[in-house]
Amino acid sequence: MTETIRLTAAQAMFRWLSVQMNEDGERFIEGVWAIFGHGNVAGIGEALHGIQDRLPTWRGQNEQTMAHAAIAYAKTRRRRKAMAVTSSIGPGATNMVTAAALAHVNRLPVLLIPGDVFANRRPDPVLQQIEDFDDGTMTVTDCFRPVSRYFDRITRPEHLLTALPRAMQVMTDPANCGPVTLAFCQDVQAEAYDWPQSFFEEKTWRIRRLEPDPREIDDVVAALKAARNPVIVAGGGVLYSGAERELLNFAKAHNIAIVETQAGKGAVDWKEKLNFGSPGVTGTDCGNRIAASADLILGIGTRFQDFTTGSWTAFANPARKLISINLAGYDAAKHGAIPLVCDARVALTRLSISLGNHRYADPDFAARDAWFKLSDEALAAPAQEGANFLPSDAHVIGAVLRQAGENTVAMCAAGTMPGALQVLWRAAASGYHMEYGYSCMGYEVAGAFGIKLAAPEKEVICFVGDGSYMMANSELATAVMMRVPFTIVLTDNRGYGCINRLQQECGGAEFNNMYKDSNIEVQPEIDFAAHAASMGAHALKVSGIAGLEAALVTARDRDIPTVIVIDTEALTGAGIGGGWWDVAVPEVGTTEKLKQARAHYEANVARQRIN
């Protein structure tokens, strides 16, 4: 006779999660972020309280930003650990939809557990219930379906016997990794069931290393041997595979230049002479030059997003071919690529053996040297500062770089800084964390929090603009309460400077982006330092680059977050590097500026090659 234990469904869920282990012998789900409401406080809340000695619970300020912290944690831990996030039904649940989309785009594991309506329907309609006039099974959590890798609605306790293992399988599958949503009906959370004792035995989940099809290896080797001028595009898959050493060894053995995507930056130290920086829209001059001349593009763990490809104008050689090494067949076959569906570490090792002593001519090292000389000038401290001088984003990045150490992680997500950082930041190994798959404003503060939780030994520097800070800053208070220190460099250009520049580049007038161009009666004078200090952070406003550098040094001695505010100008951005981005310009308009922008757009569209 099978031995059983009687538990509520919620108690069973978290007991089961507490014994799911990774290959390092650590709990895969590190803990649970929770904001309680009537849809989860009774069932899930009681269950989490009862298991807090084995599975910790943390209280956040906003469901979306709690999930952002969890996602940043999983990314920093290279998808080998994750966190869960629970909310009530209604707005608590829908607050997490943006975070689910972010995790989905970036292929990152997070377990989302929103409360849901009553499965028994007795009290329908309950508070916050969305009623569909034509579908009695529809609830607000159906919003999670398109942004989840796996979605399930728990309407019976025993559903967990299959739903939970499926959830873990998805989160630990390197090819299908992403967010899982288990919508948990609130009455079912509290229902008891006789669970098999065996269900709660400790289990280790291995992250498999997919072996290649020998025929695909042969195709890729043949293409590599036929090429004269290849370039490697290193994506985030290199980091998730743990293939940094194999990538560097492969590049050195065969003398192939490397460019890095936003997700792949930091896979190779910036000082390595084969590292040519970034390609595409936010590309270095030397990276874009080598991408334009390459006759073979070897993508490793990249989705070939439009910023990487310059909207498919960066790889301009008419004879070029594309190879895509990826665990996901969906990504490996994009844009007519020669696919190699395989783990990055395995692929690089096999390919290097097959290539033997095959080496290519030196890439253009002079172009790389010229780029770093140019970027030195952009990053240098301004010759003089005064009351009427506002530093650029490049000046700010230069200041942080001069004070950064080998253990510094630069992070950001949206606005001007992601592009400027990809072009200018000189990343040591694992010294870069950018959320640029979804480019989600509001990720920054919570993301920095999550990185520091995952890597307490690192110095985490969060770059955030005034626009993103205004969208989501409340987890700063949580970090203060939990004594999790990191440094925020808050650049205030008094609006959405990045999109204001894009608006003008596309032929538009300055409108509704900067405060000065918005329909308001009074120009705001927001004291961001006072705001951050009110949440308990150490906060100060500095008057220039020298003051910023001094504040960065003293921030290292604190056990709470530090927020350093600095006014910046909004016109320049990175100031150097870059390529074209396909943002459609109106075909018809009245201004000469718009007509010129459209002509420029059409000329670049003619350069696009998608296969």
TrEMBL record:
One Pfam match, given by its short name, reads TPP_enzyme_C
Protein's recorded name: 3D-(3,5/4)-trihydroxycyclohexane-1,2-dione acylhydrolase (Decyclizing)
Gene3D superfamilies linked: 3.40.50.970, TPP-binding domain
- The answer to keyword Hydrolase applying to this record is yes
Q: What is its EC number?
A: 3.7.1.22
Family membership: Belongs to the TPP enzyme family.
Q: Which UniProt keywords apply?
A: Hydrolase, Thiamine pyrophosphate
Per UniProt, residues of the Thiamine pyrophosphate enzyme TPP-binding domain are 415-566
Residues forming the Thiamine pyrophosphate enzyme N-terminal TPP-binding domain are 55-129
